[in-house]
Design a protein that fits this description.
The protein has helices at about 5-15, 20-30, 35-45, 55-70, 75-85, 90-105, 105-115, 125-140, 145-165, 170-185, 185-200, 210-220, 230-245, 250-270, 275-290, 295-310, 330-345. The chain is mostly helical. The radius of gyration is 26 Å and the shape is elongated.
Length: about 350
């Protein structure tokens, strides 16, 4: 055996694990040029029952995740098959198996996994179970046309309706259905779903559901080129209320920025003559400057200066660079809730 062959042999041996947890750690090492090939060798090593590789369902799930993150979807499917041979009714494994099979383009296996999953009582399903199933079926749409495609769309929408029925408080359920409708150009239906989630759907205690992702989808997909600035502000305000105490500062900053843009457009539409609108726009651009991404921060500063320079009523209100600062979420939330109540009273 040459030195090169011996080196490869030793490398292969280092991938011949005894536990699934060790396999997951080995997968993430990625410390040699043969790593991808050796990982596939490791999967087949695990598949051989004579090697007695042990692991719990969660271990197989995490190993699938490692393969998925490295975009080795075929290995992820193989790991799913191995894990499900031991844990055939683990809903998390099945859901992930549906997902990775769809990513691998193996829709026959994906449908088989989905059929297996549908044997499990839905009380054991969670949001990811529905999402992975819908994502796979949406990918499958690209393989069919005509009436077969129409039937698949209806099947997907029925699954979305079941998701909403089982999780009526889940923002992602409504958003998923809206995204499906948008993908098949049913914009009015998508608008109805999003509006229902954002403005109309109430929980058992009478409070509106917080639906920040629905707000993002509405703004991005249906209101991106709209000049209905009042509606944009209304939707963004709902999103801002929903994320004001959330750690997801990206969405928080996005909603602030969209409100600033809409206020800006109202100022331009008024010919820069309405002092109150000018002050509102400047205040929101200040908030956007403090909370937005670097690109939006730069744009906020530019628009702030533009509005000040063009206002017909001089306003001595320079932009303040609050270093490492963001708007106080709790304070903004209380203010927004008060504004929302006033808005509802007016309606």
């Amino acid at each position: 055996m040459s030195k090169a062959e011996e080196a490869v042999h030793n490398l292969m041996h280092s991938y011949e694990v005894t536990t699934i947890d060790a396999a997951k750690k080995r997968w993430k090492d990625n410390d040699n040029v043969l790593h991808s090939r050796l990982c596939r060798h490791m999967v087949e090593w695990i598949a051989d029952p004579e090697n007695e590789v042990t692991g719990e369902a969660d271990d197989y799930y995490r190993l699938m995740g490692a393969a998925f993150e490295s975009s080795d979807y075929l290995s992820a499917v193989r790991i799913a098959e191995i894990g499900l041979a031991k844990y055939p009714y683990n809903v998390d494994l099945l859901a992930f198996a549906v997902r990775v099979s769809g990513k691998a383009g193996d829709f026959d296996k994906a449908e088989a996994f989905l059929q297996q999953m549908q044997k499990i009582d839905r009380k054991y399903w969670n949001w990811s179970t529905y999402t992975y199933a819908v994502d796979m079926l949406r990918a499958e749409m690209s393989q069919v046309a005509g009436s077969e495609r129409d039937q698949l769309v209806e099947r997907i929408l029925q699954l979305c309706d079941t998701f909403i029925a089982d999780f009526p408080m889940e923002d992602r359920a409504y958003n998923l259905k809206a995204e499906v409708l948008i993908s098949v150009n049913r914009m009015d239906d998508a608008k109805q779903v999003l509006q229902n989630a954002i403005f109309n759907t109430e929980s058992a205690n009478g409070k509106l559901i917080l639906a920040p992702q629905c707000c993002v989808t509405y703004l991005e997909e249906l209101l991106k080129s709209s000049n209905d600035y009042d509606l944009i502000i209304k939707v963004a305000t709902k999103g801002l209320i929903a994320t004001a105490t959330d750690e997801d500062s990206a969405k928080f900053g996005y909603f602030v920025y969209r409100i600033a843009l809409a206020k800006d457009a109202q100022v331009v539409a008024s010919g820069f003559d309405n002092r109150d609108k000018v002050k509102e726009a400047l205040a929101w651009y200040q908030n956007a400057f403090d909370s937005a991404t670097p690109n939006r921060r730069k744009k906020s500063a530019q628009r702030y200066l533009f509005i000040r320079q063009n206002s017909r009523n001089p306003i001595d209100q320079p932009l303040i660079d609050h270093e490492y600062s963001q708007p106080d979420p709790q304070l903004m939330r209380s203010g927004l809730l008060a504004a929302q109540k006033d808005q509802q009273d007016e309606e």
